């Protein structure tokens, strides 16, 4: 277990999957609570079907039929989500042990996790060297920084799969949370939750989070896309210019006053309200995990980008360095 603390915020992570097992944050009255879903013991993280708190890859999200073309070659990945590939396959980055190195300098404290993904792992091409850092700054901001290099052309898309519930460990849902997403478009999906290739406007749909909106109210909408995904499991096309760090989303719990502001260098953000949490998994604190027990805000490249020419490319070539940064800034009011 690696513990990071600076001021009132504490983050705890383990080498299995570089998983964030808890994240303790104060509310408006200074009371500290755990704002991410987790398991109560290590053994429960070994299967971890909901990917609680894990780094997922080599390609986060879905790839249609587990197949993509690169430089004239067809690559067939393992399929673990029906006929599709999800979050790196049957044994993705979340199922591996990472090496860990503590970080402690004048600007931040934290930990850097590293691993080498060999060529052919889950049938991906190229040997990939990966580093993921969790850094806590004096501004009560957690910086997530990803880097990777490869010895052959490959695809890379890494993200962090924590489920947030800003009300803390005694809360059973995020239905009263208010969400803002800086996105004018999203990518609709088919029945397999694979993007259709369209970038649709959020205007006059339940996907319009450009102004704060209550999660529970949006989930009651009868929009066809919400029916297909049994809630939100969709990529939002972030409104941004260039590749620098830019605001992506704000999540607020009115009861506790806790606010999470997310910024990222990534072009997309996946909102997932946990439809696969069926109550059969008991999390930490004895809490049964059900849909909307927490929600994910996964900064990423778009799902199925290798098969979608309109989407941002996710190709990494030898001599290049994959870099991605996301920040979680916590306040309370």
What is the arithmetic mean of pLDDT? 96
Q: Widest sheet: strand order?
A: 10-11-12-13-29-23-22-17-20
Number of helices: 3
Query: Per CATH, what is the topology?
Result: Beta-galactosidase, Chain A, domain 5
**CATH-derived architecture:** Distorted Sandwich
The shape is globular
Q: Report the portion of residues in β strands.
A: 35-45%
The counted number of beta strands is: 29
- Poorly predicted runs are none
Span of the ends, CA to CA: 31 Å
User: Taking Cα atoms only, what radius of gyration do you get, to the nearest Å?
Assistant: 19 Å
Largest sheet: 9 strands, antiparallel
The SS-based structural class is mainly beta
**CATH first level:** Mainly Beta
Q: What number of structural domains do the residues give?
A: 1
Helix content: under 10%
What does this structure look like?
With 333 residues, this protein is mainly beta. It has helices spanning 42-45, 215-219, 224-229; strands spanning 2-6, 9-13, 20-26, 32-34, 55-56, 62-63, 67-70, 73-76, 85-86, 99-104, 109-117, 128-136, 141-150, 154-155, 159-160, 163-164, 178-181, 183-187, 200-201, 213-214, 233-238, 246-252, 258-264, 268-272, 281-282, 288-289, 295-300, 315-316, 322-332. Strands 10-11-12-13-29-23-22-17-20 form a nine-stranded antiparallel beta sheet. The protein has a six-stranded antiparallel beta sheet with strand order 16-27-24-21-18-19, with no helix packed on it. The longest helix has 6 residues, at 224-229.
């Amino acid at each position: 277990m690696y513990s990071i603390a600076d001021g009132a915020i504490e983050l705890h992570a383990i080498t299995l999957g570089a998983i964030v097992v808890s994240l303790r944050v104060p509310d408006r009255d200074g009371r500290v609570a755990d704002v991410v879903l987790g398991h109560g013991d290590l053994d429960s993280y070994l299967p971890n079907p909901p990917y609680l708190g894990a780094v997922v890859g080599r390609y986060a999200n879905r790839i249609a039929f587990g197949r993509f073309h690169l430089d004239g070659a067809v690559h067939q990945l393992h399929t673990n989500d029906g006929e599709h590939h999800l979050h790196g396959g049957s044994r993705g980055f979340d199922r591996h042990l990472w090496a860990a190195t503590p970080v402690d300098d004048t600007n931040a404290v934290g930990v850097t996790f590293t691993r080498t993904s060999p060529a052919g792992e889950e049938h991906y091409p190229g040997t990939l060297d990966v580093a993921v850092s969790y850094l806590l700054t004096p501004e009560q901001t957690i910086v997530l920084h990803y880097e990777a290099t490869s010895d052959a052309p490959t695809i890379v898309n890494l993200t962090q799969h924590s489920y947030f519930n800003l009300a803390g460990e005694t809360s059973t849902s995020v239905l009263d949370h208010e969400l803002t997403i800086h996105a004018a478009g999203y990518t609709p999906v088919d029945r397999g939750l694979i993007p259709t290739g369209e970038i649709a406007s959020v205007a006059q749909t339940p996907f319009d989070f450009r102004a704060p909106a209550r999660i529970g109210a949006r989930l009651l909408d009868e929009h066809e896309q919400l029916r297909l995904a049994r809630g939100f499991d969709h990529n939002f096309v972030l409104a941004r210019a260039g590749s620098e760090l830019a605001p992506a989303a704000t999540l607020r719990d009115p009861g506790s006053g806790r606010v999470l502001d997310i910024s990222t260098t990534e072009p997309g953000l996946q909102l997932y309200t946990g439809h696969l949490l069926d109550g059969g998994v008991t999390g930490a604190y004895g809490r049964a995990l059900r849909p909307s027990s927490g929600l994910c805000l996964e900064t990423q490249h778009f799902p199925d980008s290798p098969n979608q020419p309109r989407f941002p490319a996710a190709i990494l070539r030898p001599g290049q360095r994959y870099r991605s940064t996301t920040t979680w800034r916590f306040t309370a009011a």
